[in-house]
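Predict structure. Input: RNase H type-1 domain-containing protein, 391 residues.
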Amino acid sequence: MLCHGAVIWANQLTEKIKRKLSSIQRKFLLSITGAYHTTSTASLQVISGIPPLYLTALKEAKYFTFTKLQEAIMVSNHQIDSTTYESIIKGHQIHPAEFNIDPQISTKEEQQYPIKNSTFTDGSKTDEGTGSAFCYFDNTASIIKEWQGKLHPDNNVFQAELLAIKQAILFHQNKSIPTCIWPDSLSSLQAIQNPISPHPLVKDIQNLLHCNKSIYFGWIKAHVGHMGNESADVLAKNAVIHGTPFTLLKPLGHLKKILNQELISNWKKEWDKSNLGKPIHDLIPSPSFRNHNWDRREVMFFTEHGPFTSYLKRFHLRPSDSCSCGDVGNPLHFATSCPHTKAWHFSKPSNNNLLQWKRAILRNTQSRTRLHNMVSFLMANDILINGPPAD
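Output follows.
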């Protein structure tokens, strides 16, 4: 909702508008994290894995420009042409009254799978690229046809699975006898059953099935040791290197990926130059879409915005930054040496190991629980620990 119409307004944002968007987002971030209202917005964004709103709006504007307006866009200083990506085809290609391919497709798990007179398809994606393949077994359970296609690394495994299915149909389409094809991709079969699936390859397969009623599909569970499925799997993996080059338009999922990479890169630049949230920057130097799932007491402790005397004095809520025990009441003091919180103490780290000490707490469930109990105690015993508030 907040990014509605971003293609109109997101490309030339002033600093004033960016601050306005940040203030809108801030209310939600405080609610999500339970942090003190003085905690920096930049820290809350990184902790929750929610990027600055203006960067999200810019990403949405580029995606709309590319997919709806069919115009080239700049991503990380590279021009991306819309003709290199597959277009989404909405609506019915086949009239609903005539779309009757469901009897040709079964997604049930079978007790036994045949091998004779059966075709098996598979797709594979590795660091080297993407492969697509099928193999056909005759009535003696011997492979008499193999096909391997080598796709671009930017193509995804879903496209590879669908391409193998399409090529298998094309191989069998002129045969008069019934033929069964066994993919191990349940999502591919479910997409083919969807009459309004937007994927171009799915549309091609639906049209082929509509014209070839003697071709049937069954789903075979992957990696159960079946010779047909394992053979197709090996072929698909080998196709990444040895397959016949096959050109497919890139999926829109790849576009989303590079737009997200650009967003993360710009987000990191903003995070690195920010003067706020230094304790969190040390802990999380590189922002990501990952929600760190910190409890609100962890947010208080690691941002140093919580029921600590050092914080209260900083914001003029206490006349002194000293704990009632006499030492400066910062988070490290309460976690390692304050007599009031002795039941939850951690071993005190050296200055050189402070960052590793904090990360070790976050990695250990028991340590996190101990930290929760300590901060809860501080919140419940504010006057005892920190003394009376400032006048």
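The longest helix spans residues 252-273.
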